[in-house]
Amino acid sequence: MKYSNSEDVVVCVSVSVTEADLLAARSRTHRYLRVRELVGAQSAGARLVCVTQPMPRRRGLPPALYAAWLAALASAAPRVLLVRGNHAAVLTFYS
Q: Helix, strand, coil: what percent of the chain each, to 5?
């Protein structure tokens, strides 16, 4: 896969995803591609887009497919920040 942004910076992602993996995760793949379309449409003039990074599943998800999903999300706009937490509840109080 090859992506480029408006600054002519080219990012190449070389992944090998099997046809069986794509068929097994077809609905999730379509969901991430739809999210990519919506992010691109809604943030056309944005200088930075922050997107919650999808959580990888521990079993059953090939790393190459997860990397392809991240590459698709990151190519939605020229500058994308993928943000992910560690499922720890954090509250900050200032006094």
A: 35, 15, 50
* Domain layout of the chain by residue ranges: 2-83
**pTM of structure:** 0.69
DSSP label of 59:
S
Please name the residue that has the structure tokens 């942004």: 5
Q: What's the rounded Cα separation, in Å, for the pair 12 and 37? A: 20
Sign of CA dihedral 54, 66, 86, 78: negative
Distance CA(34)–CA(36), nearest Å, equals: 5
Residues 81, 59 contacting (CB under 8 angstroms): no
List pLDDT tens digits, range 79-95: 999 998 877 777 777 76
Q: How far apart are CA 66 and CA 94, in angstroms?
A: 38
Instruction: Locate 53 and state its tokens.
Output: 């990074």
| List of residues 6+ apart from 62 with CB closer than 8 A | 17, 18, 21
